[in-house]
Write a structure and sequence with these properties.
Residues 529-566 form the CBM10 domain. Keywords: Hydrolase, Repeat, Signal. This is Purple acid phosphatase. Belongs to the metallophosphoesterase superfamily. Purple acid phosphatase family. It catalyses: a phosphate monoester + H2O = an alcohol + phosphate. There is one protein chain. By secondary structure, the chain is of the alpha+beta class. The protein has 5 domains: 2-94, no CATH class; 110-189, Purple acid phosphatase-like, N-terminal (Immunoglobulin-like, Sandwich); 200-518, Purple Acid Phosphatase, chain A, domain 2, CATH 3.60.21.10; 524-572, Cellulose docking domain, dockering (Endoglucanase, Chain: A), CATH 3.90.1220.10; 580-630, no CATH class. 12% of the residues lie in helices and 30% in strands. Strands 1-26-21-25-20-19-18-17 form an 8-stranded mixed beta sheet, with helices on one face.
C-alpha cells in the first residue's frame, strides 16, 4: 500500500494566489481558530481543507501564505475578470433558471433520454437532425406531469426518449420549452470500438457553504457558495472535455447538490450543475447522494432508464429515488441507490440488469457510499457504505463486476482487486488480489473499487488514521479531479484503461490501470438441470442455504465457489413477493402491522418474520417514522 499527497497545483489559467501581509486565515475558523505562525516558511506538519499548519512554541499555527486549500474562486487573479462577470450573470439570471435540460442515457446506445422542468404543462417535444439547420428532423414527444409550486411558479416535469441513434454520428437536437423551440445543440455518438467515459465524485454545488471567505472573517451563505461552486464545476466540465475530446458519457457518484431539502436553494444547485454549455452535449448518469435523498428534485431532473420499482409496502421519510441500469456499447452500467437500499433491492436490480444484458464485456457499478474507502468522515460508519459491504461484495463477485465507482468521503482511494470469501482472518467476507499500475492486467480477478474525490473542489476531507489491507492508493490533492475510462476493442481483445486527472493541470493523480480480456462470447442458455450454468456456475451439490436471490433461482456457496439453487425464497418466505426477505438471524420485532405480521431489521433493511416464528422479543423503537405504511 502506498500513499502520496500532492502539493496544491494551480494551472496558469487559475492564476496566482493573492497574498496579504496582515490577514490571518487561521484566526477565523470559529472553535478551530489558531494564530498565524510567526515564521511563514516553517515546516508544514498538517495540511487540511482550511490551509497548511505549523507547530511553534505556543502550539499549532496557520501559515499566513498557505491558506484556503479548497476551490475558493476569489483567490485566483487570472480568472478574476471572468469570475466577476459570472457573478453578475449568476445573481441576476442563471440561478433562477430551473428549466435546464438534462440528457441521460437510454436503455442502450441507440436511445437517449431527456428530462427538464417547465412552467407550462404543454406536451414536451425533442427534435433530432443530422443537419445543423435542423432539416430532415425527427420529432419525439413525451410526458408532462405536475411537480410542485415553488417561488410563485408552478413547475411541471417533462420526459422524452429519442430512438434510432446510429454509431459514430453527429446529431443536433432542439427542445420545445413552453411552446418555443430553442436553438439547436450538438452531440456526437461514439465509435463502438473506441470511446471514453468520464467519472466524477461529488460535484456538491453549494458544498462550500459556511466556509470562511477570502481575506475576511465572513462565511459563505448558500447563495455565495452555490455561485462559487457552479463556476468551478464549469471549469471541471470544460477541463474534462479538453482532455478527452468527446466523451460518450459522464458518470457522477452522487451529491450533485448540497442542500438536504426540497427548497429553492437545491434547485439553484441543480441549475449550477446543468449550467455548462457542454453538459447539454453529453448524457449524464448520476447516482443519488445522501444530500439529495430527502427531496424529489433528483428524480424530476433526470429521466433515467430501467428504473427499479420495488413492491415494498413501506414509505420512507427519505424519498426513494432510482436504482437503474443501461448498456452502452459493450459496457453494462448499474446505478444503485445506497442510502436505504436493502440487500434484496440490490440483488434484484443487478439480476434484472444481467438478465437483460448478459453479454457485455465490461460491468460497472455506480453508487454514492464508498464500500472500500478509508475516508475519515464516512467510510467506516455502520450507517454508510459499510452497511452494504457484506451484501454487495458477494453480488459483484458472482456477476463479475470489473469496476465500482463511489464518492461520499471527499478523498480519493483505489483498492486491490476484491472478491468474495466466506470469511477471512479478520472475520470479513472479502479476499484480495494484488493490482498494479502501468501494467496490462489480463483477465483481472476481482473488482476494483474507486472512491472519487470532490470534482468541484467545494469540500475536501481527510483519511482514517488506521491502515486497511484492501487499499492500494490514496491521496488528497486538495484540487478538483476527474477520472477517464478509455475503452478499446481490437483484434479480438477488449481493453479498459483508467486514469484520474487533476482538473487544472491534467496531471495524472492515479493510474493507469489497464485491464484486458478476450471479447466475450454470447452466453448459452442454462441446462435443464440448473439455471446458473449459463452464468458459468454449477448447481449446488449439498448446500440448500440461500445466500442471494435472483430472478431465475438462488445462489449458494460451497467448495469455495458460487453455485445455483433451483428455487428462490419466494417458495419459503410469505413476504417475498411484497419486496421483503424473511428474517434469518434477528429475533427482535421492531414493528407489527395492522394484520399482525411482524417485522425486524437486518442486513441494512426490513425483514419479515415467518408467521410461525417463536422466541421473538419486542424492542422499543420508533419504526413508524421510517416505515409508516407497513
Amino acid at each position: 500500500m502506498k500513499r502520496f499527497t500532492l502539493a496544491l497545483l494551480l494551472l496558469a489559467s487559475y492564476g496566482k494566489v493573492k497574498s496579504s501581509s496582515d490577514f490571518c486565515w487561521s484566526e477565523n475558523l470559529g472553535e478551530k481558530s489558531r494564530p498565524c505562525c510567526k515564521n511563514d516558511d516553517g515546516i508544514v506538519v498538517l495540511k487540511d481543507m482550511n490551509g497548511s499548519w505549523g507547530l511553534e512554541e505556543d502550539g499549532m499555527c496557520g501559515y499566513r501564505n498557505k491558506g484556503y486549500n479548497w476551490n475558493l474562486r476569489d483567490k485566483y487573479d487570472d480568472t478574476r475578470e471572468e469570475w466577476e462577470a459570472f457573478k453578475i450573470k449568476w445573481d441576476n439570471e442563471y440561478r433562477y433558471n430551473f428549466e435546464r435540460i438534462a440528457i441521460t442515457p437510454g436503455e442502450d446506445e441507440s436511445l437517449l433520454n431527456f428530462g427538464w422542468e417547465s412552467v407550462t404543462d404543454n406536451k414536451p417535444y425533442i427534435r433530432i437532425s443530422k443537419n445543423s439547420d435542423m432539416t430532415d428532423y425527427k420529432e419525439f414527444s413525451g410526458d408532462n406531469d405536475f411537480y410542485r409550486k415553488l417561488g410563485g411558479s408552478t413547475y411541471y416535469v417533462n420526459k422524452v426518449t429519442v430512438e434510432g441513434l446510429e454509431h459514430n454520428t453527429e446529431y443536433y437536437y432542439q427542445r420545445k420549452l413552453n411552446e418555443d423551440w430553442e436553438e439547436a445543440a450538438k452531440f456526437t455518438t461514439s465509435d463502438p470500438d473506441n470511446f471514453k467515459f468520464v467519472f466524477v465524485g461529488d460535484p456538491q454545488i453549494g458544498g462550500s457553504v459556511s466556509r470562511v471567505g477570502y481575506h475576511t472573517s465572513k462565511t459563505f451563505d448558500y447563495s455565495e457558495a452555490v455561485r462559487n461552486d457552479a463556476f468551478n464545476w464549469n471549469v471541471t466540465v470544460n477541463s474534462f472535455f479538453k482532455k478527452t475530446g468527446n466523451p460518450s458519457l459522464l458518470l457522477s457518484a452522487g451529491d450533485q447538490a448540497d442542500t438536504m431539502g426540497e427548497d429553492e436553494s437545491q434547485e439553484q444547485q441543480y441549475s449550477g450543475l446543468l449550467l455548462p454549455e457542454l453538459i447539454k452535449t453529453i448524457p449524464i448518469a448520476p447516482a443519488l447522494g445522501n444530500h439529495e435523498v430527502y427531496s424529489e428534485s433528483f428524480r424530476h431532473h433526470f429521466n433515467v432508464p430501467n428504473p427499479y420499482k420495488p413492491k415494498k409496502l413501506d414509505t420512507l421519510s427519505r424519498i426513494s429515488a432510482y436504482n437503474y441500469y443501461f448498456k452502452y456499447n459493450n459496457v453494462l452500467v448499474v446505478v444503485l441507490e445506497s442510502n436505504h437500499n436493502t440487500c434484496h433491492d440490490c440483488e434484484m436490480v443487478i439480476s434484472n440488469a444481467i438478465d437483460e444484458y448478459p453479454d457485455t464485456d465490461w460491468r460497472i457499478a455506480l453508487f454514492h457510499h464508498d464500500l472500500y474507502g478509508n475516508g475519515k468522515t464516512h467510510s467506516q460508519g455502520s450507517s454508510d457504505g459499510k452497511r452494504l459491504r457484506a451484501c454487495l461484495t458477494g453480488l459483484f463477485d458472482i456477476y463479475n463486476f470489473d469496476l465500482v465507482i463511489n464518492g461520499h468521503d471527499h478523498v480519493y482511494t483505489s483498492t486491490h482487486f476484491i472478491t468474495y470469501s466466506s470469511k477471512n482472518n479478520k472475520g470479513e467476507n472479502y479476499k484480495l488480489s494484488e493490482i498494479e499500475e502501468g501494467k496490462t492486467i489480463k483477465n483481472p480477478n476481482g473488482t476494483l473499487f474507486i472512491t472519487a474525490n470532490c470534482s468541484s473542489g467545494s469540500k475536501f476531507l481527510d483519511f482514517e488514521d488506521s491502515s486497511f489491507d484492501y487499499v492500494y492508493q490514496f491521496n488528497q490533492t486538495f484540487t478538483s479531479t476527474f477520472g477517464v475510462l478509455d475503452f478499446k476493442n481490437e483484434s479480438g481483445k477488449v481493453r479498459m484503461t483508467i486514469n484520474v486527472y487533476e482538473v487544472d493541470s491534467h496531471d495524472i493523480t492515479d493510474g493507469p490501470y489497464i485491464f484486458e480480456k478476450d471479447v466475450k462470447n454470447t452466453n448459452e442458455e442454462g441446462s435443464d438441470e440448473c439455471w446458473s450454468t449459463s452464468l458459468g456456475y454449477p448447481c449446488c451439490e449439498t448446500t440448500k442455504d440461500i445466500i442471494y436471490n435472483s430472478n431465475k433461482g438462488s445462489w449458494g456457496y460451497e467448495n469455495d465457489s458460487w453455485c445455483g439453487i433451483n428455487e428462490t425464497e419466494a417458495n419459503t418466505c410469505w413476504a417475498y413477493n411484497d419486496g421483503y426477505l424473511c428474517c434469518k438471524n434477528t429475533k427482535s420485532i421492531q414493528l407489527i402491522n395492522e394484520d399482525g405480521d411482524k417485522f425486524g431489521f437486518e442486513d441494512g433493511g426490513v425483514c419479515a418474520f415467518q408467521r410461525d416464528a417463536e422466541n421473538l422479543n419486542i424492542i422499543m423503537l420508533d419504526f413508524r417514522s421510517k416505515y409508516a405504511k407497513i
